[in-house]
Design goal:
3-stranded antiparallel β-sheet; 3 strands; Sufe protein. Chain: A; 5 helices
């Protein structure tokens, strides 16, 4: 039911953990299942130098979090903002229809972390 890529990211998730002293943090919850995801970002020269995540959720939520860290790392803020929920699912070779909502968490948490970063940056200026 899951693609090989989903299984790979689920069993061997990339970039798990917290970033000490992050530039932005975004936490989102899925009201349907109660799962929670937090994304941490470190920004250097307007690029996402590091992206990490912590997810309390299903296998698909873990796989999509892992994938979004790979998609976002090294991108500019603008490019990362354009990563959509669909991009995440597509990069994983698709998700079962019932699990599509799980991929929303990853994109939403990344966007929330970027929003947090931009808000903090604005406050400093
Ligand atoms: Fe909750 Fe997948 S079942 S995020």
């Amino acid at each position: 039911m899951y693609s090989e890529k989903v299984m790979d990211h689920f069993t061997n998730p990339r970039n798990v953990g917290e970033i000490a002293d992050p530039d932005g943090v975004g936490t989102v919850g899925n009201p349907v299942c109660g799962d929670l995801m937090t994304v941490y970002i470190k920004v250097k020269d307007k690029k996402l130098e590091d992206v990490k995540f912590k997810t309390f959720g299903c296998g698909a939520a873990i796989a999509t979090s892992s994938m979004i860290t790979e998609l976002a790392k090294g991108r500019t803020i603008e490019e990362a903002q354009e990563i959509t929920r669909g991009d995440v699912a597509e990069s994983l070779g698709g998700l079962p229809p019932l699990k599509m909502h799980c991929s929303n968490l990853a994109a939403d948490a990344l966007h929330a972390a970027i929003k947090d970063y931009l808000k903090k940056k604005e406050a400093k200026e």
